[in-house]
Every structure is written in structure tokens, then in C-alpha cells.
Amino acid sequence: MIVVLTGAGISKESGFATFRDADGLWERERVEDVATPEGFARDPDKVIAFYNRLRRGLAAAAPNAAHTALARLETALPGKVLVVTQNVDDLHERGGTKDLIHMHGELLKMQCRTCREVMDIHADMGREDVCPACGAAGKLRPHIVWFGEMPLEMETIEEALLGCSLFVSIGTSGTVYPAAGFARLAKAAKAVTVELNLEPTAPGVFAFGTYGPAGTVVPTWVDDLLAGRLPYRL
Ligand code: BV8
Q: Is 62 helix (H, G, I), strand (E, B) or coil?
């Protein structure tokens, strides 16, 4: 089993800003204001507008060669590849990945705080919108895991990490927990750990690393892995 963890860096070449790079999202908005339940309670219109803007940006973005390379890996190894993404964009899906977990939620989904239903959303959300499932008004929120909230499908993820033979971290700064702890969990479970990123983030944690833009590094890595040209086997 191969577990692939991805972060904002894999979507950078698709035109999606990362969070902590110099031109990142957190340079423009305070995390406390737009990515916490407290921020949403304080100013729901500001948070809804932030995610409406990100969601609108999705249409202009396209999956890049890193997304499509991961889909090629999954096609070549049916049932053996799980992608766990911290990203809330839909570029992995549009790139062809099927076995995918969005641990921090999804821009194209919303949830109702009354009935807890999670529903698709493709247009802007409005503060007073009515829940299509239960009819409650003004109770919808983005289906995004904010700081202080529990990431999604953690049991499935942890089970996959404990049972994987290869763990690959792509385009993430390893800043946000619990995702930032996955490499250590996989390493403790005797998996080979690989980092494919712009720059090293956790010296001593990853057994192997290749550094450069994901759109170049990931397709080459997938080709090398499938051709048996890497110093580790599946
Ligand atoms: C929780 C949604 C507990 C918003 C996000 C210790 C243990 C556990 C928790 C904590 C802990 N210490 C602190 C915490 C709390 C907190 C945390 O980790 N804080 C950090 C800042 C210290 N964690 C939480 O709150 C999490 N919840 O722990 O709940 C709990 C327990 C019980 C019951 C209830 C609760 C929730 C975290 C989720 C927060 N939500 N996103 C949104 O997306 O709008 S996090 C946000 O950061 C995004 O999801 C993003 O994906 C994620 C990580 O960022 P990256 O993806 O890594 O992006 P970044 O910009 O940082 O880095 C980009 C990388 O790409 C860089 O390395 C760069 O070099 C590289 N790159 C750039 N260009 C390219 C490239 N690589 C390749 N190619 C390129 N072209």
C-alpha cells in the first residue's frame, strides 16, 4: 500500500496560492479570522466571502502534471494507492485520482449546522441561505476543517499509515498537525518515507527526498517507481 499525503504545494502550479509561501493566502488574511470556528462566529460574512472567492478560483485552475501522475500511479497499481490531501480544491479528482480523502474538507461542499448534512455547492454561499436538506435558514457553513476542529476520516488514515509500505509527502510544509505527524507514524510502522517538495521540511524524518516543482518532480518519480529505478520497491 502506498499512502500519498499532499498539501498546497501540489496545487501551486495550477495557480492555487499556498498558505505560507511569500505570496501565500495567510499573507492576505489572518488565519484566526478565516480558518477558525471563532473567526466564523465573529464574522460569518467575512469567512463565507473568503471561501466564495477561493471556490470561484477553482474554475480557472486545472490539474497539473503532478495530479495526473498520481492518477497514473493509481491506475497502474489498482487498490494500492491512497491519496490523503490537506487541500480543499478538487484538482486531484479532476486529475483522475479515485481513492482520495480530503482530511481538511472541500471547497465544493457545505454543511448544515442544524442537520449536519454535507452537500455539494458550486456557486457562492450566502449567510442566510436555506439548507436544502432540512430547510433551516442561516445555518450553512463551508465544509472546511478549521483550526481546532478534528480532521476528517482520521481512523481510516491512521489505519492506512500503519499498514503502508511506502509513504510519500508532496507539497506540504509539515506545519499543520495531525498531518505533519504522518511521516513519523509511517516511519514507525517501517514504511519507506519519501518527500517530494520544493525544499526539505523535516531533515531526519524522510528516508528519501527529491526537491523541485511538483509538476516536474512527481511525474518523474512515478515513472521511476513504476520502472523499478528507485532504491526501494513497492
Ligand atoms: C486539530 C483548512 C484537534 C482551511 C486547514 C499538535 C497536535 C495536534 C494539533 C495541534 C498541535 N499543535 C497545534 C495544533 C493545532 C493545529 C495546528 O497544527 N496548528 C499549527 C499551525 C501549529 N491543528 C489543528 O487545529 C487541526 N485540528 O488538531 O484538532 C482536535 C482533537 C480532538 C477534537 C477536536 C479537535 C486542524 C488543522 C486543519 C486546519 N485547516 N485548512 C483552508 O484550507 O482554507 S490547514 C491548512 O494548512 C491547509 O489545509 C493546508 O493544506 C495546511 C497545511 O499547509 P500546506 O498544505 O503544507 O501548505 P503550506 O503553504 O504550509 O506549504 C506549502 C509547501 O509546498 C511548502 O513546503 C512549499 O515549499 C511547497 N511548495 C510550494 N510550491 C511548490 C511546492 N512544492 C512543490 N511544488 C511547488 N511548485
A: coil
**Residue 25 above 80 pLDDT?**
no
| Residue owning the nearest CA to atom 21 of ligand 1 | 176
Grid coordinates representing 221?
518519480
Question: Residue 182 — φ and ψ, nearest 5°?
Answer: -65, -40
CA of 65 to the centre of ligand 1 (A): 23
| Torsion angles phi and psi, residue 119, rounded to 5 | -130, 155
Decide: 120 and 109 in contact? Cβ < 8 Å.
Answer: yes
Q: Is 226 exposed, middle or buried (0-12, 13-18, 19+ CB in 10 A)?
A: middle
- Protein residues with CB under 6 Å of any ligand 1 atom: 7-9, 12-13, 18-21, 24, 35, 86-88, 104, 144-151, 171-173, 175-178, 197-199, 201, 213-214
| SS3 of residue 71 by DSSP | helix
Distance in angstroms (rounded) separating the CA atoms of residues 147 and 40: 11
CA distance 150 to 159: 17
State the pTM of this model.
Answer: 0.95
Summarize pLDDT for 64-79 with one digit per residue, the tens.
Answer: 999 999 999 999 999 9
Q: Which helix (H) or strand (E) holds 44?
A: helix 44-60
On the question of pLDDT at 212 being above 80, the answer is yes
pLDDT higher than 80, residue 203 = yes
pLDDT at 30: 85
